[in-house]
Amino acid sequence: MNGLPRADLPTDEPLVLASGSPRRAELLKSAGYQFRIDPASDNAECGICSGDAAPEFSARNAFRKAEDVAGRYESALVIGADTVAWCNGQILGKPRDVDHAESILRMLSGRSHDVYTGICVWSVKLGKVVVEAVRTELQMLAISDAMLEEHLDSMRWEGKAGAFGFQDGNDWLKITGDGSASNVVGLPMERLKEILEKFDSIADPL
Q: Among 21, 42, 129, 190, which residue has the least CB neighbours within 10 Å?
């Protein structure tokens, strides 16, 4: 993605991405940020519970990932993120296997749904944090059995919330309104810029 917004960092701490996602790393790199990658532990994420709503769930996971990585540093500005799809009152995370991916895509076919990315920016030195969830509405066109089979065979569903990657250029996915494409990919770059610019005034003490 080109033309992504960038802000100066609010502290002199090194920027750390608490994620092994190549898509999030590419977004930061494309915007011109200098950063290191230090993925959170697998057990930093909490499981989906029946009472969870997508904004709270994604924000909580983003916080837990940032917290996990922040504990490794004496000075770091850590970014944690977590992305889920939300449709028909259900959180749709990463599919477990191809059958799960198929069931997710059949649910989404022909429907609008929301993608939420929780984002957490954590300053170890300042002991302050911002945690939010950013929403983008997507419309998935009705997909034929042949299109579904091609997508499942391609394995492009693996490791992606909602069993799809917006960045893969699927013409059956459209953003409605003025939502953020980078948010669907996994990191809301427009909101990240605003958080970094306003960090001193909006961050909460830990």
A: 42
Q: Per residue in 135-150, pLDDT tens?
A: 999 998 899 999 999 9
Mean pLDDT by 10 residues, the chain (206 residues): 92 98 96 98 73 90 97 98 91 90 92 94 98 95 91 90 78 84 95 98 97
β-strand pairing of 77-87 with 15-17: parallel
pTM, two decimals, is: 0.89
The catalytic site residues sit at 82
Q: Are strands 173-175 and 204-205 parallel, antiparallel or unpaired?
A: unpaired
Q: Are strands 173-175 and 77-87 parallel, antiparallel or unpaired?
A: unpaired
**For residue 113, which amino acid is it?**
H
